[in-house]
Amino acid sequence: MADFSCNINATIEPPSAKPGDTIRIKADVSDVQGEIRHVILSVPQYGMVETLKPQGDGSYSLSYTIPWEAPSTTYDLRLYATSTEGERSEPERLNFTVM
Fold first, then answer.
1. Average pLDDT over residues 42-46
2. SS3 22
3. pLDDT of residue 3
4. Looking at the 3D structure of the chain, how many domains does it have?
5. So what's the pLDDT on residue 36?
6. What is the dihedral angle through the alpha carbons of 84, 56, 21, 46, rounded to the nearest 10 degrees?
7. Pairing relationship of beta strands 92-98 and 59-65 according to DSSP bridges
8. What residues make up the domain containing 17?
9. DSSP 88
């Protein structure tokens, strides 16, 4: 496998929300070494994995509705890219609070 790496700079709007609210996650990807297949959002505490959609300008985004049953807590979100060869980038980590 070839070396694969990239930088991910992610934002979440709004930075906290209640169950039933919709949030938007945007990931700007730069300094790509290799070919990106997907940009993935993982929330290990909740067992959630989602694929962000490419926007055509080097960014990826996802609109997500917080499930009604999501417990009120701060979650550790991880965003990473995968290559066409199955490699994974270092994750960008963010905190998100469900109120």
1. 93
2. strand
3. 87
4. 1
5. 95
6. 10
7. unpaired
8. 5-98
9. B
